[in-house]
Structure formats: C-alpha cells, structure tokens
Amino acid sequence: MAAAKVVGLTGGIGSGKSAAARCFADLGVAVVDTDELSHALTAPGGRAMPLIVERFGAGFQRADGALDRQRMRELVFEQPEARKELEAILHPLILEDSLAQLAQVEGTYALLVVPLLFESQAYREVVDRSLLIDCDEEVQVARVMQRNGLSEPQVRSIMAAQMPRAVKRQLADDIIDNSGTLSELALQVEAKHRYYLSSLARARGQ
Ligand code: ADP
Predict the structure, then answer these.
(1) Which domains does the chain have, with CATH numbers?
(2) Is the CB of 143 under 6 A from ligand 1?
(3) Integer Cα distance of 13 and 37 in angstroms
(4) pLDDT in tens, 22-53
C-alpha cells in the first residue's frame, strides 16, 4: 500500500493550529503533532533526557526523570548558545519520531502539525502540501492574551519575532481563515478534508 500523503499544518502563535487539528482528528484524520512529540521526548523516560543530562548536567532533570522546564527556560533565555544546543538534541529526534508515526498511518493522508514548517527545510521536504491557519492579527492577539495570561505588548513581541504573516500566506499551498467562530473553522476544515481526500488520493494513484 502506498504511503499516506502528508499535509503540514502551520501558523503563528494562537492562530488556531490546535483547534484546527482537533477538527481534522474529529473527521478521522491521523494527526501527528511535533509539539507533543517534543514534550514526550523530555517527559520521564523520554529519549532526549540522557542526552540533555549528558550535555547540561543532572540538575536539569527533575526527580521524576522529566526535564526541569523552568530551569531550562531560564538557561536558554540567558544563553542563546544553550538554546541552539538544546535544539540540536531535540530537533533530529522530533523529526525521527514524526517520520516513524507518519509511516504507521493508513489512509489517504495524515496531518503533521509543525509550528515552524516554513522555517525548516527538513519539514518542507516531508510534507506534500502546506496548510496555513491564518487569523486576523487583532483576534490573534486577544486569543493569546486570554489563553496565556500575557499582556498585549508581550504577545506582540512574540508575534514580531515570528515569520511575517504575509510571507507565510505566500508560501502556503492552502489557507484557512480562523478569525471567525469555531463552527466556521470546522466548516472550512471539512471543505479542505474533502479536497485532500480527492486530490491526494489521485496523486497517490499516479
Ligand atoms: P495555536 O495552537 O495555533 O497556538 P490554539 O488552537 O491553541 O492556537 O488557539 C489559541 C486560543 O484561541 C485557544 O485558547 C483556543 O481555544 C482559541 N481559539 C482558537 N480558535 C478559535 C475560534 N475560532 N473561536 C474562538 N476561540 C478560538
């Protein structure tokens, strides 16, 4: 049986990636989420933990074996080099786990959630199509303030550090506008799902 095609779902902070991924999952689509894989790698018994302890020391591991996230956040905030080293440990493992999970998927396509899809050549090569979850900036700011309990300047500075929305819109194969209600989001996901089922099944048959 041919391998399932991969639709890469991406978008800025609070654009609605998780909300959209849940809608796809509700339709029976297999979802692989790189943030979840990253979290699992640094959970108790996670595959990244021995490498992190080797590089940063046992002080970065909590008694239960998980990464001490607070301590690591402080370190990478102070030392950009440490962030790079942490990423050098995590990124190849996340990619490896993503590919392993995608290989298990049966059906026409799987959804791969990658916040930094357009920034990463490796993921751009993995996906057959990219789907951007886009959102009016004012709505996005309000949702992140509400979800994360952050101030407006804090949210805006995170957004300013991300790839500009206009660039992402140009790079994306498909776009869903999540400025409206959750039911409007679900309707758009259903439409994209139908489109992927027919167009990606055809592509697989070739
Ligand atoms: P991301 O995964 O891209 O960071 P989320 O899916 O977590 O974004 O959405 C950000 C916040 O906005 C969450 O609290 C979510 O519940 C809320 N949200 C997402 N889409 C909608 C929507 N269409 N209507 C109302 N709230 C939404």
Answers:
(1) 5-197 (3.40.50.300)
(2) yes
(3) 18
(4) 999 999 999 999 999 999 999 999 999 999 99
